[in-house]
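Researcher: Here's a chain I'd like modeled. Treat it as a single chain, no partners, no ligands.
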Amino acid sequence: MRTLKISLLVFILSINVSAQWYQQNSGTTFPIYGVTFIDSSTGIAVGGKYTPNGTRGTDFKTTDGGITWTQQVIEISETLYKVSFLDTNIGTAVGYWGTIIHTTDGGTTWTQQVSGSTNILSDVSFTGINNCTVVGYYGTILRTTDGGTTWIQQTSGTEIHLQGVSFMDANIGIVVGEGVILRTTNGGTTWSQQPSGILFDVSFTDNNNGIAVGAVGLIIRTTDGGLNWFQQISGTTEQLWGVSFADANTCIAVGGNGTILRTTNGGINWGQQTSGTTAPLWDVFFTDADIGTVVGSGGTILRTTNGGGITFTEENNFSQPQDFHLQQNYPNPFNPSTKIKYSVSQTSQVLINVYDVLGNEIETLVNEEKPAGEYEVEFNGANLPSGIYFYRLNAGEFSETKKMILLK
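Model: Modeled as a single isolated chain. Structure tokens:
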């Protein structure tokens, strides 16, 4: 399956930042890896704590919107990485060595469930009162339809470490990992696969719009439920470990060296905020566009009540192309993927198709309106035989065709 990676240089962001993240007292100096809020007041964070008897899973609870946190050591021997709640009572946390714990009283007490796995479990997503999906290392996907009484291993089709999962409804879900994106439309019975960069987390605001983040500042965005993904300019080379939508337009990503990024236009443009820490930040959750919590190493818990205090000023890009142009793909010959760069000098309906030597259309790479800018799209020929292929750009009255060679 093809994968789209598009870079658009349309705006340079001038950012005014004020320090509007405040350190909260977690009561620990050990890592806190996951956080979620049940409602505007009640939140749960999870992590690990080293004790004289070894590592113990730890959770932290707030009932005042993140102002104060109460810590308790859970009677399990493994670190916890992520936590998700379906409602005010029902929640699940996952972690090291196949650990799954479940609560039915809002996190006051937890019961360990039998996962059937010894792999690291890295994320969890509810799709209904009894339905939940967990992902982890070595291609692990676990699903329950009975509230966790039994967990069934699903066939992911990969051995890659899976890091993040987000379900838009009971059937449609996305899993991201270290080089792969998986998508299901039947609740996880089957998964389709497309290659990607190294990704650590994913968040959707509705059935169509989602953002995934990963290594070296990687941010990709989809507007069609995960069928196609477009790379965005993050402005950082730090690892991005967590991402969360606050509303349809506002999304926050967090990562290494205290990095906090925020977008207010659905992920098109990103600006960096001042976190006040250099600790790695692992997860983020916003209850609305203003009130949010970030957790990280060293017992870090950060809180904002004004969205982090960032404003954007947009300026025209000085490098806006003057002409339409289709470049030769690179590499060429290629196996199995190649990149195609093109330029659009004014807002136009852009169409890029791939054809075989007989003129049969193989694939449509781009079919949408694009503003002026420089773009890059990746074509993957893994499922095609070796041979000569052609790709054509149509934009307004401009048309150009070039040849490429797939050599396996």
